Amino acid sequence: MQSKPLIGLNANYRPATHDRPAFSFVGAGYYDSIIAAGGIPVVIPPVAEAADMDAILDRLHGIVFIGGPDLDPHRDGFMRHASVRTMEPRREDLDRQLMSLVVRRRLPVFGIGVGMQLLNITMGGNLFFHIPADVPTALPHKDPLDAGHRHGLEVVPGTIMDRIYGDGEVRVNSMHHMAIDELAPGFQVAARAPDGMIEAVEWASDDWVAIGTQFHPEADSASALDQRIFEEFIEGIHAQYGVSRTPVAAGV
To answer: What SS3 class is residue 145?
Structure first.
């Protein structure tokens, strides 16, 4: 593998309006964090063909799925809570198809926010669609008046999150109203909020680098320690691919 791995980034999407063209966009924190951790970010446009997605993935060493608006519960056969604000269909189409290809290949993946939720859904888990309604005893996980809203984090011993944060009080940003309910098979919880809500997950065996955080380690409200998650992800990619990169063929 080249000294710096190529890390894909999906992008948010806004359609054209009467006075503005359509465009894709990525928060600078995502690619800045990848660069700081020793990777080379590559933004993936919303291509429609699976073959084109495969051609892109053939060249990548890993992928980060960014946060953003909500996934549409209708696509998974559930009712849509009134609080759900879905992402643009063109982005969701790409994200869902891209994630399916990523998990089939076992390409290293780091899902953030809705990216972690999509990873969990794709692997067979499900979600709470509105925490205040589904779990009335939960802590506030979103404050519309405070973009830097934070809560505690309880890490699980022996996990990547434990390696990063260790002992002592940990607080992370929180800006979500949906969350993991049933965890997908093969994953383990790596951290929870004090109310028990899942805040981080990781693949339970060493044959795949797959992690997720509900909080946002790339955001301005993140701590210096949070950046270590990107570093652990890049280190995991180096460990998986070693000194050479053989493209991973699509398959089951």
So the answer is: coil
